[in-house]
Design goal:
The protein is an alpha+beta fold. It is built from ten helices and six strands, in the order H-E-E-E-E-H-E-E-H-H-H-H-H-H-H-H. The protein has helices spanning 6-9, 78-87, 129-146, 151-166, 176-179, 183-203, 207-213, 225-237, 241-248, 258-286, and strands at 12-15, 20-27, 38-49, 67-71, 94-100, 109-122.
Length: 287
């Protein structure tokens, strides 16, 4: 039986801060079900306007009017990342006009799309420990792939991954026998993700946040070189030269490693200059 859907789900949805908008065009109501963030669905894209060469695995001309499989959390381009978010706001049988704002005013991407089927769907809070681990790993790997070209979206993926694992802190209480995975495995992945987040924050010049994300460096016997370097770099930019130097010295034979050696010499020179300036200021004030 066909029903009007306005009363159930409304006719429009938008996420203004992301520039996303969805308007229902038609709906053959069979079941009031939306895909979760962990889901596999079948979609059909009927029309695309103003893509203008942007990367997408779903919106090319050869994919129009054909059923396509979409797995949530797999997007590796901004357009597909946003398209996933839009599809998650659709119900089975819905046809909608989805729009994504671009930097060019008045030139938004317009997509007519239908959600034909939800093959799998599971809310995140019902995932087991191994399932949550592999979801976080997937988000992390996507972030690594997007970091160079799309750093903002890489940051979002790393943040998603961290949120997944935070659900199971404190990790020490997890056992393989009872929970399906040992806590140390989740902790190790969490540290990797924090290191990835530190790279994004360093790019954004959010140095104090880098320090926060890499607090684990001071608690580990052998922290990764990447995490140590990013923490030391943040201290350097904050003019915390003593802390930067001590952080670098955590790495054995840092003098033999080009990046560490270069940063170490910068830190030493800046500290000398800073100390000389301070002494000069004191002399002027009290001389």
């Amino acid at each position: 039986m066909v029903h009007k859907m306005e009363w159930y789900v409304g006719t429009e949805w938008q996420l203004e801060r992301k520039g996303l908008h969805k308007k229902v065009l038609a709906h053959d109501f069979t079941k009031l079900e939306k895909p979760h963030a962990v889901a596999k669905v079948i979609i059909c894209v009927e029309e695309v306007e103003n893509l203008n060469g942007r990367e997408s695995i779903y919106l090319s001309e050869d994919k129009l009017n054909k059923s396509q499989s979409m797995e949530m959390g797999s997007a590796l381009s901004p357009v597909d990342y946003y398209l996933e978010m839009l599809v998650q706001q659709m119900v089975i049988g819905e046809k909608a006009l989805c729009t994504i704002k671009t930097k060019e005013a008045g030139n938004e991407i317009r997509i007519t799309i239908s959600l034909r089927e939800i093959q799998e769907s599971k809310p995140i809070h019902k995932l087991s420990v191994p399932e949550m681990y592999h979801l976080a790993l997937k988000y992390k790997e996507n972030g690594v792939k997007m970091f160079k070209t799309y750093p903002v979206f890489a940051h979002e993926y790393f943040a998603r991954a961290a949120k997944c694992l935070i659900s199971f802190k404190e990790f020490e209480g997890l056992t393989k026998k009872r929970d399906g995975m040992a806590g140390k495995d989740l902790y190790e992945l969490f540290v990797q993700i924090q290191t990835n987040l530190a790279a994004c924050l360093l790019n954004a010049k959010r140095y104090e946040d880098v320090i926060y994300q890499t607090n684990f460096v001071d608690k580990q016997n052998s922290p990764s070189e990447k995490s140590v370097y990013r923490r030391a770099m943040a201290y350097y930019h904050l003019s915390e030269f003593d802390l930067a130097q001590k952080t670098i010295e955590k790495i054995p034979n840092y003098e033999e490693k080009k990046e560490f050696n270069n940063l170490y010499h910068k830190v030493v020179e800046c500290r000398k200059t800073s100390n000389a300036n301070y002494k000069g200021m004191v002399k002027k004030m009290f001389g």
